[in-house]
Design a protein that fits this description.
This protein is an all-beta fold. It contains no helices and 11 strands. The strands form 2 sheets. Strands 2, 4, 5, 6, 9, 10 and 11 form a 7-stranded mixed β-sheet that branches. A 4-stranded antiparallel β-sheet has the order 1-3-8-7, with no helix packed on it. The model has no long low-confidence stretch (mean pLDDT 94).
């Protein structure tokens, strides 16, 4: 079974930076292909929203609220997606979830989610 493991969240002051990572792991050879990868976030009392996505051809798209401050990237060799977050604002405070659309030998194409990592930006 494939699992996504996130890291890099934490507490930071406004204007600071954090880098989130999300690595997919599973039985050796089980991940055949990685399609889209992305980051979403959910603040208390709000719906989960898209932060950024990156396709297999490395085309990216961002929420308007993070354009120019966040950068998404991927390392296919490591089955990992990153989110570099700069100039953080208190309104960026949320639980951040990664998402990877993977093709595996056991289950074919499927969307997987990480467990979430808390990002808190103090003013």
């Amino acid at each position: 079974q494939v699992q996504l493991v996130e890291s890099g969240g934490g507490l930071v002051q406004a204007g600071g930076s954090l880098r989130l990572s999300c690595a997919a792991s599973g039985a050796s050879g089980s991940i055949f292909k990685i399609n889209d990868m992305g980051w979403y976030r959910q603040a208390p009392g709000k719906q989960r929203e898209l932060v950024a996505r990156i396709t297999s051809s490395r085309t990216t798209n961002y929420a308007d609220s993070v354009k120019g401050r966040f950068t998404i990237s991927r390392d296919n060799a490591k089955n990992t997606v990153y989110l570099q977050m700069n100039s953080l604002k208190p309104e960026d405070t949320a639980v951040y979830y990664c998402n990877q659309v993977l093709v595996t030998t056991a289950y074919g194409i499927r969307s997987y989610w990480g467990q979430g990592t808390q990002v808190t930006v103090s003013s």
